[in-house]
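Dear support,

Our group has been running a series of protein-ligand predictions, and this particular one with adenosine-5'-triphosphate is the one our PI (initials K.S.) wants archived with full inputs and outputs. We had some confusion internally about which version of the output was final, so please treat the block below as the authoritative record. The input we submitted was:
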Amino acid sequence: MRLGDGAVLRFACRAVRSEGSSAALIIVTDVTQQKAADEARNSLVSQATHELRTPLTNIRLYIDALIDQQDDDAAARLKCINVISVESRRLERIVGDMLSVAEIEAGTMSVNRGDVRLEPLFKELRADYEAQAQDKEISLTFDLPPKWPTLFADRDKLTLAMHNLLGNALKYTPVGGRVGVMVETQADPAKGDVLLVHVSDNGIGIRPEEHELIFEQFYRAKDNRISSITGSGLGLALARQIARQHGGDITVSSELDKGSTFTLVVPLSTAPSAAGTTLSRAA
Ligand code: ATP
Ligand code: MG
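Confirmed final output from the archive:
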């Protein structure tokens, strides 16, 4: 057996006695994998706890402020209630995302496939983000095919994956930027006909060494500009798992300070599910 660098071994020693002689039995077990799994679990729990603590602390602080308020300042009260409402919705979303990720990981998330009409789906997506784009003076464009294929997929889950991509593009693109959605179909030698959804922006971009890490649960880019933007680092992990459950994937090409393109690819007809692919996590 060859051991790699950083291998962890467990030694156990037992006395073995037989007539007239005594000996020791030394058992050496390679527990490297077990230790890595334990560390992964601990780190995930501490990251999750940290993510949940921030909104909880804010809720408690603003409830205390409401209780302490002596005067009858309606505006101040409303501000506290708004913060409590926003933060409790954030908690709800984090917990919901974590449950979905856990379900996919355990292979227990059901995929309810059906014929998905793409034209209304993209119309709704556009309507959902137009106001947000206007608020940030971002030009939001949709380049859609003249003829739509029918997709056999779980409409709600795929919509969620696209919301995460488009939401990110708007979140990580500064005021005055550009975000574009381009939809096309292609013949893929391995997967048959596939649907491709490219979500591009000319926002802050991502360093090459973080291109894979951003798909891990709770990972957020080590970029100062990220810290002032709300997020828990779960959206892409979830979106990629959904794409993989459909036999597809999400990939990224990005350049720091120039922008990013995330591409969602899913086979049009149902391919055997890639469910059960395990989620990796931030190291
Ligand atoms: P949330 O759970 O609310 O989605 P999040 O947006 O931080 O939080 P992800 O969507 O998983 O989490 O994205 C992970 C990280 O990838 C982000 O924190 C950001 O650093 C980076 N990222 C994602 N999309 C973009 C983008 N379009 N441009 C630049 N960075 C991005
Ligand atoms: Mg996100």
